[in-house]
Predict the structure.
Amino acid sequence: MASYPTRYSALALLRKGVTRSDWPRAWRHHDLRSSYDVVIVGGGLHGLATAYYLARNHHITNVAVLDKAYIGGGGSGRNTAIVRSNYLTPEGSAFYDRSVRLYEGLTEDLNFNIMFEQRGHMTLAHNDASLRTMRWRAEVNKLGGIDSEVIDPAGVKELAPAIDVSDRPRYPILGALWHPPGGIVRHDAVVWGYARGADVAGAHIHQGTEVTGIDVASGRVTGVQTSRGAVAAPVVINCTAGWSTLIADMAGVKLPITTRPLQAAVTEPVQPFLDPVIVSGTLHVYVSQTARGELVFGASVDPFSSYSSRGSLGFTEGLAGHVLELMPGLSKMRLLRQWAGLCDMTPDFGPIIGPTPVAGFYVDVGWGTYGFKAGPVAGEQVAAMVANGTVPRLIASFGLERFEQGRLTAEKGAAAVGH
Amino acid sequence: MLVIVCPHCGPRNSNEFTFLGERSTRPAVAATTPAAWRHYLYFKNNAAGEAGERWFHVSGCRRFLDVERDTLTNEIRSVRDVGEAAG
C-alpha cells in the first residue's frame, strides 16, 4: 500500500516507474461524521477552494465538502476554462486580478500541474459602440495595474493570423481589447488539485452525498440533512451552481437568480495554429485551442431558463456560422461533441458572496458565466469571511443585500459574452 | 429545440418567441416601497419543475402567451393567450 500523501515530482515519477508501485489516491474516502465545524454544499471548484483556504490560511480543518454526485461534475467541468481580469468596474477588475495572480502560482501552491497557459485574451470589436467600451475598459484596467490595451485589425491579424480581418464578413473587425495575462487552464486539474490539497489538510470530501434539508433554529443554521444522514454544523456555505436557489430555499433564503443552460462544443484535435483566446460579443462566441489541439467553443446562455443540460441543434448551427465568420479556414473541421452547463444568472451579472439573513449560512453563488476564472479568489475570500466573521473589502460590493438596497454592480458590459 | 404550440399560429419553433420569464404579481405602484419593488423586479422562484411563464410571439401573431412548462424536462403542458381565462 502506497504511503500518503506523495509529493508529485520528477523524482517521484521515476521512483514509481522503477518500483512499479501504485500511486496513492489523490483524495480519500471518509465516514460521514455527525458534526463538522463547517459544511460546504457543492464539491466544485468554489467549494473545494474554500475548504483548501480554510485549512491553509485559517487552520480550520474540521470541514466537510458535500456533493450530490462527483466533484467537479457541474460548472467546474463544463466551462471553457478561460481566465482573465479585464473587467469593467474597478471592484470587478481588482477581484478578478487577484484570481489571475492566484492562478499564476497555483501549480506550485497545490503541487498539481493545472496547465495554466497565459497565451493572451482578445475581445473583438465589430462596431463603434464595442470599441468605445473597450477603450473605457482598457483605461479602468490600466489604472488598476492590469495589462490591457486596444489594438487595431492589423494587430489582431499579427496575433491570430487565422482570423479574417477583411471587409468580407457581415460584421468586419474594427479592433480588439488585448489582455496578455489572460489564458486557459486545464479545469479538471484545478478541481483535483484543490481536492487533494484540502484532503491533505484534513477536510473530508463526501461524494454521492446529497443535501436534502438545512436545519435552522431561531434564525441560526444548525446543520444539514443529507442522503447519508444528519450532520450538525454551526456554519453552512452554499457553493452550488445551477441548484443554488433550491439549496438556499431549504434555509428559507431567497436569491435573485435564474438558472440558464450555456452550451459549449469541442472539435477534433489539429496542429496548433491559434495562440490567444478569441472572444466576439457581437457574434456570441468564444474560441480557444487546447494544449491537445482541439478547438473549444462557447456561446451565450440559452434564450430561456431551464435545468435541462441537453444540447440543441439551433446552438450548433448558430455556433458553426459564427465561427466561420471569424475563421473561414475552419470550414472542414468536425465537431466532436457538445454539452451544456447550468449558469446562475443574477440581475446585474455580478456574483452573490456573503452572509444571509440566516446566521451561519453563507452563499458563494450567482456565478453566471464567470465562475471558473473566479474560483481561487472566491475560495480565498469566503474562507477569510467565515474565519474572521467579517466581509473582506475585495468582496464587499457583492453582498446579497445590494438587490434590496438598489446598489447593483454594473458588470454586464464586461462579464457577459453576449453584451 | 423547443416547439411551442401557439393558440393562434399552431406549432412553431421557440426561436420565434421571446422568453419574458416567470409570471409574478406586480405590487401596486403607488403603494409599494422601494425594497418591495426591487424584490418584485429581481427575486424569482426559479422553480425546478412546473413553472408558469410569459412568452411573446415576436415573429408570429405578436400576442403575449401564458406558458406552463416543466423546467427540468422542458416539456410544455399548456399555452394560452393572456386574454383567455385559466381553464
